[in-house]
Structure formats: structure tokens, C-alpha cells
């Protein structure tokens, strides 16, 4: 892929904003057709409005970066197409992502996301589950009816992504009931496989469908799917880092929120696998059934750092992005879009620092 230096003068935030403004009108038009009640909840889930339906002036208000839509647009441009070609893929990806977050928050009992109450906390569990179902239905409809001759293959990509995503979520839930150490303990390898399914599959689908709708070859589609899964692994790794060491002002969640809930994330698992004094003390600290106190969260954070968990997983994130770049390196890609993809990968790592 082209060197990052070719987009040195164009900040990655500008690339993200360009893709967002391309995709946002189409995404809004899909949700505008809904029942007023579910329409309100879907708009809230995207961060476009408050709980009473009052719109934010800036479409970026309350939303995430939209990495999936950016991948779809840049993949389309990288194979020589127009960013507009990838809009149905980007909308599909954003709808699936929103669906997964809504349902994940219910299953994980998370009360805050992006600096405000989660959907179920605002409207109730039943309405939130319904809103998630609506978002998934819209994603399937978008893939089926907005992609012309590519619709069958787009649906195949979407179904494969959904199977992987749900497989990964099942594994993630299963991890909660397994021990930290000893027989039956969750291994770092198992966690990586879960992350590739739960997070990577959707990023892979986003890039692959973007390339497909822009006329990319089967080789392009397969390569972007593979590379996107590696990017997804890196993305999840850095989310795990932010979940322990991230600034709440940036993450929208309380400091150490993953540790407080004794959530099995890769930095913890890697530190435990080192099997030194820090690992043993960390395992003892995490063994209880109750949420950790602030003091215990601070101590666990120190032990993970001492055990090498942060450094090890940061290295793994870089390695996953290298594999993604190597997967695409042999393909003929448009230089500008290729460079922007590289810049996006760089951003995914830097956001955790």
C-alpha cells in the first residue's frame, strides 16, 4: 500500500468526515421510514438526537468515528470505483454495528455508551431489543435492495458476517463463566479468535462489500475481507487497552470499566499467561464474584502493566495491522485511497495512546 506520507497534509479526521458526509444522508433516509417510536430509538442509538428526539446540530455529535463506513468507501475507491458506489455497503455496515451495540449493551448490562445512557437504560429492555431487531432488518433490506446485480453476493457477505458476529458474541458470553486460570481457563488464542469473529467480521464485510459494489474483482473482495478482519482484531485490541487505561472523556465510559466488571480482555489474559508474581496476585484479585472497588481497579491495572499485558497486546495490534497491509500490498490499488487506508490503520493504533 502507498506510504502514509502521501496523505501527510490531510488529517485522517478529514477523511473520516468526508466519508461520513457521503453516507449520512442515505443512512438517515433508511431510518426515516420507521414507526415514530422505533425511529426515535434508532436515531438515539446513532447519537443523532437526545432521548426526547431533539436533533443535534452536528451529525458527529454523540456518534463514534464510523470506521466501518470509512472502510467501505475507501475500499471502493481503492479498486478504482467511486465512494458513492459503496454507500449501500456503508449503510449496511453501520446498521449492523448499531444493532450489535444495542443488543450487546442489554446482554452486558452496560449503562453508558458514548458519554450518555445506553438505549435500554433510556427506553427499557424490551424496546431496546425491538430497536436492535429493526436495525438488523434494515441492514438486510439495504443489502438486498440497494446493490443491483451484486445483491446476491452482498447478501452472502452479510450472512457470513452475521454468523461470525453471533458466534463471537456467544463465545464472549461463555467466557464470563469460565475461570481465570487453571483447567477451562480462557486462553489468549481463544480470545483472539472471538475478536476476529465479533469485531473483525464486520470490518471485513464493510471493506469487502465496498470493493464488490465498486466493481472489484473476486480477488479484491477476498483480500479486503481478510484485511478487514485483521484490522478488526487490531481495533478490538486497542479497545481493550482503552477499556483499562483510556481517558473517560474520550471513551465515554468510567475508567477501568472492563476491570470493574471482571471482563476477560486480552491485556488481562496475556498478563495472566506470564505466570509470574504479578500474574498470581492479579488472579487472586479477580477471583471474587463482586465488582471491583476503585482501589482494586487501580491495583489490577498496575499488575497488568507489571505483567506486560499492555505492551504485549499493543505489539499484537501492530502485528495485525501489518498483516492487513501485507494482504493488500500485492493488489493494484488506487494510490490515494490506499494511502488513506494506511492512515486509517495508523489512527486505530494511535487512538489508544
Question: Please, could you describe this protein's structure?
Answer:
It is a single chain. The protein starts with 11 loop residues before the first helix and ends with a helix. A two-stranded antiparallel sheet has the order 1-2. The longest helix is centred in the middle third of the chain and has 28 residues, at 218-245. The protein has a single domain (4-350), classed as Orthogonal Bundle (Farnesyl Diphosphate Synthase), CATH 1.10.600. It contains 16 helices and two strands. With 353 residues, it is mainly alpha-helical. Helices cover 69% and strands 1% of the residues. Helix 6 (125-145) runs antiparallel to helix 7.
Q: What is the mean pLDDT?
A: 89
Q: Distance between termini?
A: 24 Å
Largest sheet: 2 strands, antiparallel
Give me the CATH architecture, please: Orthogonal Bundle
**pLDDT under 50 segments (min length 5)?**
1-9
| Number of structural domains | 1
Order of helices and strands: HHHHEEHHHHHHHHHHHH
CATH C-level label:
Mainly Alpha
* Structure summary, number of beta strands: 2
Main attributes of the structure:
353 residues; mainly alpha; Farnesyl Diphosphate Synthase; disordered N terminus
